[in-house]
Amino acid sequence: MSTMIEAAPKASPDLIGAYCCIVQRDLRLALRRRVDALNTLVFFVIVVSLFPLSVGAEPALFRAIAPGVIWVAALLASMLALQRLFASDYADGTLEQLLLAPQPLGVMVAAKVTAHWLVAGLPLVIAAPLLGLQFNLPADSLGVLVLSLMLGTPTLGLIGAIGAALTLGLRSAGVLVSLLVLPLYIPVLIFGAGAVEAAASGLGAGPHLSLLGAFLAAALFFAPWATSFALRISME
Amino acid sequence: MNWFKYSAPQTFYPLAGTLAKWFFAAATVLTAIGLYISFFVAPTDAQQGESYRIIFIHVPAAWMSMLIYLVMALWAGIGLAFNTRLSSMMALALAPTGALMTFIALWTGSLWGKPTWGTWWVWDARLTSELILLFLYLGFMGLHAAIDEARRADHAAALLAIVGVVNVPIIYFSVQWWNTLHQGASVSLTKSPTMAATMLTGMLVMTFAIWAYCIAASLLRVRAIILERERRAEWVAKLAEVRS
To answer: How many CB pairs lie under 8 A apart between chains A and B?
Structure first.
């Protein structure tokens, strides 16, 4: 009996090992279902492209609304992608195994969010400058746009993970998660779009980017913990 | 006296009934006094004329909307931490009243904004934060309603409420942070108020009136929730109002 108890911790990987293991696993799974990841990107591009069709072809107007439009589209795209975060693990029982594992659940949640951001968030960051060009954004604000999304989309994923965990397995999870998560996204949206606007108007995006960084740091600290709490509530 | 006696739904149910009656009575009397002061005693404002009188409902409702969210999150957190059923029921009972107060604050604010700012709505920090607060209440109620199992619903909604509490300080400090169209706070504990004494009296009386109303309405609602959750309990079956 005692040998079994001693043997178990040795066989399981340490914190960083567990983190890397889950990131690798989720990335491999995403690579086998490439369309899922692409759908988020295509949705983002389509939503942004709809705006010129609805507000008319005025270059000055485009430049004014571009930061907001791109940020709202990125926010909606990452919100739609949230449902994939835990749903398949919940359906096939992997999530229960994660909850029973000896490693802290927060670390594993952080790993899942990392992998999710690499699949669903990073493509948006990379595609954003192209869309910015379509909207006549000046070159230096394109850099700020990328930087603000780089800081903002992981925060969105971390906050969204709480909502995804709370609505796990519910009938109306899709609509409900947006109701829960969108209000919490608002500060990120304000300062994300604000950074690009400040850069475009020559004010300097430093304060906005610093606040986005602060949000990211706070979310990195609190969100995995809150998410693992929510997962335990949903799975009990 | 053992206060934990009333942490059981069975003992709290009759207490809530008695308290609700008294608070409703207090709300009625205070509203009558408050409305009299606000319509007949308080002077006409030099700049805004009569339209400022909506402050007597707007400001108390806005205060209550934020306070109720904090109290709701507190009860929800206690329910989550100590697994006490009544605390979670109390949080659930407070949510609709809080949402109502938020809605009243937004509605009267827009009625007030039309004559003074010339527009129904501005995307000012405080209005926007109040709107977000309404969304947070709706999210809390939506999440609770979507989960059938009462225990999971209580705990999940509690976690959401605690996460949302981050928003309430943002509302409060938004005036200083963004410094936009909305006027700064007229009442403060550190400075003397910038309004006439009778106006302040009217507003405080209305605040207590709305406070009493919110407590009474929440207590009545928690009674209904207790009855619904405990419907299979023996003590519920013995109640006079259930038997009849």
So the answer is: 51
